[in-house]
Amino acid sequence: MARAILMVLDSFGIGGARDAESFGDAGADTFGHILAAAERGKADQGGLRSGPLVLPNLRRLGLFRAAGRSSSEACAGLWGSAGEVSRGKDTPSGHWEIAGVPVLFDWGYFPQEIPTFPASLIQQIADDSDIPGVLGQCHASGTQIIAELGEDSIHTGKPIFYTSTDSVLQIAAHETHFGLGSLYDLCAIARRHVDPLNIGRVIARPFAGETAHDFRRTANRRDYSVPPPEPTLLDRAVAAGRRVLAIGKIGDIFAHKGISEVRKGDGNDALFDAMLGALDDAADGDLIFANFVDFDMLYGHRRDVAGYAAALEAFDARLPELEARLRPGDIAIATADHGCDPTWRGSDHTRENVPVLVFGPDIEAGSIGHRETFADIGESVAVHLDLPAGQHGKSFL
């Protein structure tokens, strides 16, 4: 049994989703397009990186075979891919499906028109929170709208409301001028009022700095999510007396259901450190579930090919640290929750298959093929940890 480590490289798709066309994403391929851009010298980033993408550890674990980029090289673990059956390409849907519970219903979404939020919704939130009004009210990139409206927000006390193609209401406000606690309280109020609209998440987006030139989003983001519609792998683990150690935004994504402890980190490196610390503390039968958000938040949505490439190489370089800490019986799985192709039009997620790389001291090399649902990942972890089976997936172990 030992332990299980589940790592989500947020947005690291490998293309090829069977239903990509219905999402407007036929041809999207996060990994493939970064790889090609690097080969052409289009992913150079000053002194941080240049030339072809160098991922020796992910290659050794089977990434290139999982993505159809190699057909014969030897791999150190199990490798394959998985497709999503959930109806959205959003973060909660992907993570819940990984944990054994696909989202088979339709989320509510806000329209493209401006103002994008119903006047009645804004009024309800304002009445309950005493804010003097709101700015934004549109579909937008978070960093761009903060640069555009952040100074107005500081001067007027009005938070910035915006959304994306996901089922989400995002609220940005200055961490000190508006107050972090006030922002969290406002998001909790908004959460209540968007429930009837079936909106998946309300996200607090605090920022710091004094002018548009130095505004930056801080690590104190908080997601107010609806809970999964049925017990997930995490709930089954906790019910069996195991600990679930959530790294990064995992706790928020699951509305803190099935979570024993949350450990945060500002950026992928800090999150990797937090994951290693959790592994040092985990007992046999425990589950560590980590999300590495930078791939999506900093590079995918911002369409930063070079930054994404550098982040992949940095993550790859740290994998030997994880492998050195694995004990006999441990299993580690690296996967993703959707795509966010940095070469694609717009700034939103892309519908893609994801890699499934499985490794550990006792894992023999081989292919798991293409899995029809992310839920197979969760069911495989359930088998490894000797937990009750769920309804939606099939173990590959």
Structure description:
By secondary structure, this protein is of the alpha/beta class. It is 34% helix and 18% strand. It contains 13 helices and 14 strands. It has helices spanning 30-39, 56-60, 63-66, 91-98, 119-129, 142-156, 175-194, 233-239, 250-253, 268-281, 294-300, 305-325, 375-384; strands at residues 4-9, 78-82, 135-139, 160-163, 168-174, 201-208, 216-217, 222-225, 244-247, 261-263, 287-292, 331-335, 354-359, 366-371. Strand 6 (201-208) and strand 7 (216-217) form a beta hairpin. The longest helix has 21 residues, at 305-325. It is globular, with a radius of gyration of 20 Å.
Which terms would index this structure?
single chain; 397 residues; alpha/beta; 8-stranded mixed beta sheet; 6-stranded mixed beta sheet; 14 strands; 18% strand
Strand order of the largest sheet: 10-9-11-1-12-13-2-14
Count of alpha/pi helices: 13
Poorly predicted runs of 5 or more residues = none
Q: Would you count the extended β strands for me?
A: 14
Biggest sheet record: 8 strands, mixed
Mean pLDDT, all residues: 96
For the record, give the distance between the C-alpha atoms at the N and C termini, rounded to a whole number. Answer: 12 Å
What would you call the structural class? alpha/beta
Radius of gyration: 20 Å
Q: Summarize the helix and strand pattern as letters.
A: EHHHEHHEHEEHEEEHEHEHEHHEEEH
> What is the helix fraction of residues, given as a range?
25-40%
Beta-sheet strand percentage?
15-25%
Morphology: globular
